[in-house]
């Protein structure tokens, strides 16, 4: 059974300013350099006409993983994520994300929404993680959901700082 991952972050900048960042090649290069972790890399990064399609590979070091994960998948946990953002449509933009975990039958997916929030904006993620392993899949889903949430919070902090210095 899949585990739901709800997450949102608010910014004082307008929807247009946040969208401009999310669809900027420099934003993604800076974000990967700052919060990507050791060995993080791009699979691809395509920016065109107010849209973006980006794939990044990031690793969670084995020493930060609980034993239940390292028993089924020794070593660092490599996660490959794809994120897309569509064009700005009034005061809203929509996107998607997917992720796969190397060596673990796990998938993550969901929807992204950028919308107005008073004079600022909010980026909301509505996702889920599913691990197809009998008996222990639910526990691993919880670990992955926690790690993803921590990563999203780090990315939120980076985005707030980046927006503050680039808008």
TrEMBL record:
A Pfam family the protein falls into: DUF2505
InterPro entries given in the database record: DUF2505
Lineage: superkingdom: Bacteria
Name used for this protein in its record: DUF2505 domain-containing protein
Originating species: Rhodococcus kronopolitis
């Amino acid at each position: 059974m899949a585990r739901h991952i709800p997450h949102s972050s608010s910014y004082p900048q307008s929807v247009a300013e946040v969208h401009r960042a999310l669809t900027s090649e420099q934003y993604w290069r800076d974000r990967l350099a700052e919060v990507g972790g050791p060995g993080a890399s791009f699979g691809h990064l395509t920016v065109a006409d107010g849209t973006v399609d980006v794939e990044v590979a990031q690793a969670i070091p084995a020493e930060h993983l609980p034993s239940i994960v390292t028993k089924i998948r020794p070593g660092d946990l490599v996660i490959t994520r794809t994120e897309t953002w569509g064009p700005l449509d009034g005061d809203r933009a929509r996107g998607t994300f997917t992720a796969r975990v190397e060596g673990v039958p796990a998938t993550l997916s969901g929807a992204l929404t950028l919308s107005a929030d008073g004079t600022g904006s909010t980026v909301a993620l509505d996702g889920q993680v599913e691990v197809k392993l009998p008996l222990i899949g639910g526990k691993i889903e919880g670990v992955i959901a926690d790690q993803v949430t921590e990563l999203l919070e780090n990315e939120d902090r980076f985005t707030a700082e980046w927006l503050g210095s680039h808008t």
